[in-house]
Design a protein that fits this description.
Elements: H1 3-22, E1 25-30, H2 38-53, E2 58-63, H3 71-80, E3 85-86, H4 113-120, H5 123-130, E4 137-147, E5 149-152, E6 166-169, H6 173-181, E7 185-188, H7 194-200, E8 205-208, H8 210-215, E9 224-227, E10 232-240, H9 241-245, H10 249-284, E11 288-291, H11 294-304, H12 306-310, H13 312-315, H14 317-327
Parallel strand pairs: 1-2, 1-3, 6-7, 6-8, 9-11
Antiparallel strand pairs: 3-10, 4-10, 5-8, 5-9
Helix pairs in contact: 2-10
Bound molecules: (2S)-2-hydroxybutanedioic acid.
(2S)-2-hydroxybutanedioic acid (LMR) binds at residues 32-33, 39, 89, 145, 170, 191, 208, 212.
Length: 328
């Protein structure tokens, strides 16, 4: 081989290496809710801060509204590395084998964001995220949505009102037990399918924080919304572990800092986003909003509290006691 060929060959390799060094690292962040929700806004905020902090070395592509994957598929896609980041609801970790996350679904476990944050932002939250390592997943943070309300085409004021209703739930066994304790039949369904299922009568009702209820237009197909605050819905932001561990350490540090900022943002806006959504539902005039009297609330609590004992062995007795210590 002539010398100039060898030199040309080296130049080509050097050029290719330089070009690949300039290619941004892509993070595909897939989620199932609308852009205009606590999670949707926080995902976009993370993108902005992450791209700023890494000075363009990382590009975050956010795919909202189940555009790429539905609930179950997105978990599989993360493990396969087809996407790098998700923020599934804590009620969707059971099928991964992380049943402890379903503790967050227990009805009336938290009486507000403050007691919840003592759990998610303390050692209990950290140890829960750590449990995901063995699934090839790194848990980065907890993001709030909020407290769930019940909807149907009939007023739900007393536990007896639930009898015979078919209600959509996320894939959590705790939520299954919750609906059964009320005398309803639970039906697991992907979030992206709920609107149509409500519209066509495949299910009679559902539960969700109002931000999800409104942005999925469920108010157009549900006549009543009971402000029950009977349970919490929040998220764990998770990444593919191999991808995360393989990042250059300085980039990973910048992304961790961006995630801290995004978490602060998410948890600061969640409550007001849900209040604004409630106002929007009220204004729409399509769904009647019902409050529970203290006696009615007591009746719901009485019907539902047994779920703690019944599901204690699934979510872990020690974990439940540790959470109750923080919230009690
Ligand atoms: C649901 O499926 O109802 C929620 O988990 C959707 C979400 O991500 O908030």
């Amino acid at each position: 081989m002539k010398l100039q060929h060898i030199v040309a060959g080296f130049a080509l390799v050097a050029f290719a290496l330089a070009a690949s060094a300039q290619q941004p690292i892509i993070i595909k962040f897939s989620h199932v809710v609308a852009v205009d929700t606590p999670k949707g806004k926080a995902a976009d905020y993370f993108k902005k801060v992450a791209e700023e902090k890494t000075k363009g070395r990382v590009k975050v592509e956010v795919y909202p509204n189940s555009q790429l994957y539905k609930d179950k598929e997105e978990m599989e896609a993360l493990q396969l590395g087809s996407v790098q980041m998700l923020a599934p609801s804590l009620a969707k970790f059971g099928p991964l084998g992380a049943k402890e996350f379903e503790a967050f679904d227990l009805p009336y476990l938290f009486d507000g964001y403050a007691s919840l944050h003592r759990v998610t932002e303390g050692p209990i939250g950290q140890s829960l995220l750590k449990k995901l390592d063995s699934k090839g997943i790194t848990g980065l943070a907890f993001w709030d949505n909020g407290f769930k309300q019940m909807s149907a085409n009939k007023p739900l004021k007393q536990p007896a009102d639930f009898r015979g209703l078919k209600l959509r739930i996320q894939s959590s066994k705790v939520l299954d037990a919750q609906m059964r304790a009320l005398g309803a039949t639970p039906q697991v369904m992907a979030f992206s399918e709920v609107y149509q299922a409500l519209q066509t009568g495949v299910v009679d009702g559902t539960e969700n924080p109002v931000s999800n209820f409104y942005t999925q237009k469920m108010h157009e197909v549900q006549k009543y919304l009971t402000l029950s605050d009977h349970g919490y819905l929040g998220y764990a932001v998770i990444v593919n572990k191999k991808f995360w561990d393989g990042l250059p350490p300085d980039v990973r540090g910048q992304l961790e800092a961006a995630m801290k900022d995004a978490t602060r943002y998410a948890n600061a806006i969640a409550a007001t986003e849900n209040l604004a959504a409630l106002e929007a539902v009220r204004k729409s005039g399509k769904t009647q909003i019902l409050a529970l009297s203290p006696d009615e609330k007591k009746a719901w609590q009485k019907a539902l509290i047994k779920v703690h004992k019944d599901l204690e062995s699934r979510v872990g007795k020690d974990l439940l006691q540790a959470i109750q210590k923080e919230t009690g």
